Structure to design on (183 residues):
């Protein structure tokens, strides 16, 4: 993929960003997001430049090829760290970027009223899976049951067993044969 690291400058201030869009589209997006400010919810620090007037420019700093969008963001971060700018999110490493995304996703889920993974595991019912399995087995058809058991037997047959396990399996099979003969 091809990406661009760009700089918005004006009024003695600089903002660094990155995009996969053509630069003219990105400039239009900055303008439109600034015009319809969402009560500050989606604040972008480029607004510090845009709010001063129309005497600002956007220019390409670097064009690069990348496989992962995080590579582009890390390159953007390089310019933010090594230059004076209005950007407040200055990520340094891939780990910091990963942590930033995790925190952002958690915050976003809270705002939408969704449960967060870490909280879901704390409140999870320990008997849920057993109950779910029991209900699924009770409603499954004979064909599904035969298929499920066939897959289980295949997986069990592929699994390597110790001599002790093999002996226990032989003993169980012998006892079942004896029960059938008695009945």
């Amino acid at each position: 993929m091809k990406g661009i690291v760009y700089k918005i400058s004006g009024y003695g201030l600089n903002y660094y960003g990155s995009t996969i869009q053509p630069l003219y589209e990105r400039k239009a997006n900055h303008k439109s997001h600034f015009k319809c400010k969402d009560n500050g919810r989606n604040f972008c620090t480029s607004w510090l430049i845009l709010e001063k007037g129309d005497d600002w420019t956007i220019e390409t700093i670097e064009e690069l090829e990348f496989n992962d969008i995080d590579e582009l963001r890390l390159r953007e971060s390089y310019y933010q760290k090594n230059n004076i700018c209005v950007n407040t999110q200055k990520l340094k490493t891939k780990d910091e970027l990963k942590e930033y995304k995790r925190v952002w996703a958690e915050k976003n889920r809270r705002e939408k009223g969704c449960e967060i993974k870490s909280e879901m595991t704390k409140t999870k019912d320990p008997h849920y899976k057993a109950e779910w399995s029991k209900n699924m087995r009770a409603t499954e058809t004979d064909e599904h049951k035969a298929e499920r058991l066939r897959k289980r037997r295949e997986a069990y047959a592929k699994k390597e067993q110790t001599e002790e396990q093999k002996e226990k399996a032989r003993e169980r099979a012998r006892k079942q044969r004896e029960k059938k003969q008695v009945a």
About this structure: The chain has a mean pLDDT of 83.
